[in-house]
Amino acid sequence: MDELTTAGRGAAGPGSQAPGPAARAAGVAARDSYGRLLALLAASTSDLASAEDALADAFERALRTWPSAGVPDNPDAWLLTVARNRLRDHWKSALAQRSLPGDAGPGQAAYVDAPYVDEVDVEAIPDRRLELMLVCAHPAIERGVRTPLMLNTVLGFTAEQVAQAFSVPTATMATRLVRAKKRIKAVGLPFRVPDRTDLPARMTAVLEAVYGAYVIDWETTGPQARQLPSEALHLAEVLATLVPADPEAHGLAALVQLSAARARARADERGRFVPLAEQDPALWNPRLISRAHEHLRAAHARGQLGRFQVEAAIQAVHCARPPGGETDWATLLPLHRLLHAIAPSLGSGVALAAVTAEVDGPAAGLAALDALLEQAGPAGRRFQPARATRAHLLDRLGRGAEAAAAYDSAIAVTHDSAERQYLQRRRDAVSR
Q1: Could you say which DSSP state residue 267 is in?
Q2: Could you tell me if 41 and 84 are in contact, meaning their C-beta atoms sit under 8 angstroms apart?
Q3: Residue-range definition of the domain harbouring residue 353
Q4: Which of 183, 216, 222, 257 is deepest in the core (most CB within 10 A)?
Q5: Distance of alpha carbon 195 from alpha carbon 199, whole angstroms
Q6: Which has the closest alpha carbon to 39: 124, 151, 125, 129?
Q7: What DSSP designation does 398 have?
Q8: 233 with 207, same domain?
Q9: What is the rounded CA–CA span in Å between residue 369 and residue 374?
Q10: Is residue 142 located within the same domain as residue 103?
Q11: Among the listed residues 272, 285, 338, the one whose alpha carbon sits nearest the alpha carbon of residue 311
Q12: Dihedral sign, CA of 364, 368, 369, 374?
């Protein structure tokens, strides 16, 4: 399933042929519906592994049968029915006792009754993704794997993507995920929204997972980028509705909406990366910006400041820049200082150094950045935003040779093709 999910989140690679209608339809379903379908399949048994196997089998059969039979009118219903039949046959089959994979005969290649599929309205079935996320955040699950488990199972990111986001080897992350899924089945954790008294203890991990989905999607730019990180948008809004008294739920919703509002401006007509300071505000989505401000007002009314609210406030300042106007760096600097004080991280420290350079000059920004990296040690030196920011500041200071070397260092650890090309253009300009 990892390979299909990856295909669903991106485009054909360099030199590859464009996918046909069947592969495109399967990719859309993997990207937009995987978490919902998995939650529906696993809700009755709490057996995530079997549900994943059944859904992977359904996608595999879709890729085999749709090119010749045609894409069904309702691909999600087709996939859900095939996967449910796969689970039914697995449970009934004596082969399951010996852990051998069952397979259909020649006459059962699709495992599906076409008239029945036409009657399945997946949208009418209650969405169980939130319940699945709360299962993943259950105290019986190891704390460090709760958010990665949600990203993998509910939000459809591959083990490799999740491992990269958490800076651990892919094999290590895959082992942790498998162990956690087995734990859910062994304990028989129920798929339900917990009591209000239990909900706050799980909300931090859920908010972090939605934020993680937003970050992973946001790091993809250029032709492969989604116009909006729709899954994070939807779930952030659901969480704010579920716990309206939680200011951080509103803060997260505002943060995702403000960032998503700028998605259209992140690449030019040729698919090239456009930095925030160079984007055209006329391309930003005013409806999302307005809705984000509603969430910020709701969060502010609770009088409890948190990390997501500060991050959202920072994005709100960026989104207040008028067309042709300047960013309000003087307002951003204390906000970044506050963020780094209440939620210190490499990311917040690098951002603070970059904003310091805008207010106090590049020399002050570089000094702050170098002090941060010295304190962070090897992890700081490997951090891509730190390398890119340092290259930019050295360039502004006129230290060409050092800037070129720093750009080379940043390019070497930049995975996104559009951003890599942008850094390469900056590096070439330094050389010229």
Answers
A1: B
A2: yes
A3: 336-432
A4: 257
A5: 6
A6: 129
A7: T
A8: yes
A9: 9
A10: no
A11: 338
A12: positive
What token pair was written down for 295? 């969430």
Cα separation, 188 vs 13, in Å, equals 41
pLDDT tens over the chain, length 432 residues: 444 444 444 333 334 455 688 888 888 888 778 888 888 888 877 788 888 899 999 999 999 999 998 998 889 889 998 998 888 887 776 444 544 443 433 333 344 444 445 455 566 666 677 788 888 888 889 888 998 998 888 877 888 888 877 878 899 999 999 999 889 888 888 777 767 677 777 888 889 888 887 777 666 544 444 444 466 788 888 888 878 889 999 999 999 999 989 988 988 888 888 999 899 999 999 999 999 999 999 999 999 999 999 999 999 999 999 988 999 999 999 999 999 999 999 999 999 999 999 999 999 999 999 999 999 998 888 899 999 999 999 999 999 999 999 999 999 998 888 899 999 999 999 987
- Report the 10 Å Cβ neighbour count for 244: 12
Residues 28 and 71 in one domain: yes
Same domain, 165 and 50: no
Among candidate residues 327, 354, 376, the one where a domain is terminated: 327
- Residue 377 region by backbone torsions, left for phi larger than 0, else alpha for psi between -120 and 50, else beta: left
Pick from 327, 356, 375: which residue ends a domain?
A: 327
171/216 same-domain check: no
Write down the residue that tokens 């600097």 correspond to.
Answer: 333
Q: What are phi and psi of 273, to 5 degrees?
A: -60, 135
